[in-house]
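User: Structure please.
Assistant: Input sequence and predicted structure:
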Amino acid sequence: MEPLKELFPLNPGLTREVNDASTNKELPENTVILREGQYITVIPVVLQGLIKVFTRHEDRELLLYYIRPNESCIMSFSAGLRREPSKVFAVTEEDTSVLLLPVDRVRQWTKEYPDINSLFFQQYNLRYMELLGTIHDVLFEKMDKRLYDYLKEKIILTNSNPLKISHRKIAGDMGTAREVISRVMKKLENEGKIKQHSNSIELL
């Protein structure tokens, strides 16, 4: 029950109910846990690892945000409470441990234990600010700055430098073409900001 004390420093009764009703699950890297159009049955809370939440249009993807340890997916929470299909995809970026909260119980808990709403209000605020940042970057920032900022964040999230990642995956996260990423990556390398290895990218 220890993780729950960190996540929910709330009513002990709620902590017991969450512990009894929820499931801990270990998910390997690249596990799809949510698809667009899917109805929500469980709301994930990340205990360890990382989940990527993104939207897709035709063959293009756009990263919306990451779910880090002690965070949840506000899009799943919103769709689950409204009984609406998901508008996003969610995939594990690395081996990830999650706590799965059954959405029918979450609906009940929000009425019986209003304190649980504080967790999701915090998530709303966090995601809102992140989405504003994404919109700002897409509209106003040049691709070289966007790419460099993306790499910095990814290194912080994964605690890895060099970062093992392909140009194709970066392009998918940033909603652009692989050729664009390769061209801008070369520019950053020529400027001495990064170094490209055979299967990784190092920030200098």
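The chain has a mean pLDDT of 86.
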